[in-house]
Amino acid sequence: MKIGVPKEIKNNENRVGMTPAGVFELVNQGHTVYVQSTAGEGSGFFDEVYQEAGAIILETIQDVYQSSDMIVKVKEPIQEEYDLIQPNQIVFTYFHFASSEALTLAMLKSNAVCIAYETVEDEDGTLPLLTPMSEVAGRMAIQQGAKYLEKPIKGRGILLGGVPGVTPGKVLILGAGVVGVQAAKMAAGLGAHVTIMDVNMKRLRYVNDIMPSHVVTEYSSVYNIKKHIQTHDLIIGGVLLKGGKAPKLITRAMLKDMRPGTVLVDVAVDQGGCMETTKATTHEDPTFIIDDIVHYCVANMPGAVPYTSTLALTNVTLPYVLKLANKGWEKACAEDASLAYGLNIVNGKIVYKEITEAFEWGVEYYA
């Protein structure tokens, strides 16, 4: 099979879909790998290293798409890429269709085979290709939130860990999944007081068992959320509905109950955000302020640490890339139920029901 690795062109996205090690494995198994020139530089992988691993370097993104049976990348195609995607071409990447009707319609029109990292699902319900980026984003949420609590950037002027004689900052985490647990670890490590909320008591029991005493758990309800937002300095949104839109747990009206300079970090922004005032931002312009509340809603948070993120991502995607390349998508998905969950759009039809539910399209596009 001919596999293409284009350079990511989303704002400040420095990750790359495949490392030289991945190229070596594919070439060693008889496949051809095209890598766009400088595609890996942001992650510290240069063209010469890809060539040594057996890749063919192509100059333009158009060349990569035109030459490849399968595209392996990191982020969803953006508008400039829509017309480059060919019928029957496999596109293996993060899509997050439920948050973008335009992207969904474009991929339907393309007649491509869209396999989404974020919906590949193991037997136990875990999401193996989303987990490493959720781990990065959860940890980064505290790192970024701590920075934006500083007064020069309109935060409350709080040091999360406090100092002797001064109480530490307070962090509220919505969701006890991978993002929430990783955020709690980081915040606890800084010495902050952490409250983590979820509707899943099994997850809350797990968090209660593994976290230190200054991390407390509480059942998530509108009443409890409204109570805690009044006293917490940093609020992390880490809620996930597999393949669907995130629920709006914090409304615009709730902002008035928060103290000026409170920081909101919505890690669920890829799925539409779990805060009503969320709108996607970039690393170039990461924050905005509404009612004196600082919002950080960068849609590709792990892109800021591309070396770590690329290695973490490709560690888990490569085995699936090899299956797709060796067997073709139909046989690979027939033999691997986890990979089959990744099928979102196939030749102009949606095959993942949460997408149609997000847009209320009924059965028009559903296969």
From TrEMBL:
NAD(+) binds at S134, D198, R203, S220, V239, L240, V267, A268, V269, D270, V298, A299, N300, M301. PROSITE patterns: ALADH_PNT_1, ALADH_PNT_2. GO terms for molecular function: alanine dehydrogenase activity; nucleotide binding. Residues 4-137 form the Alanine dehydrogenase/pyridine nucleotide transhydrogenase N-terminal domain. Signal peptide: none annotated. InterPro entries: Ala_DH, Ala_DH/PNT_CS2, AlaDH/PNT_CS1, AlaDH/PNT_N, AlaDH/PNT_NAD(H)-bd, NAD(P)-bd_dom_sf. GO terms for biological process: L-alanine catabolic process. The keyword Nucleus does not apply. Substrate binds at R15, K75. One of its GO terms (cellular component) is plasma membrane. It catalyses: L-alanine + NAD(+) + H2O = pyruvate + NH4(+) + NADH + H(+). Its EC number is 1.4.1.1. It is an enzyme of class 1 (oxidoreductase). PANTHER family: ALANINE DEHYDROGENASE. Belongs to the AlaDH/PNT family. This is Alanine dehydrogenase. It comes from Formosa sediminum.
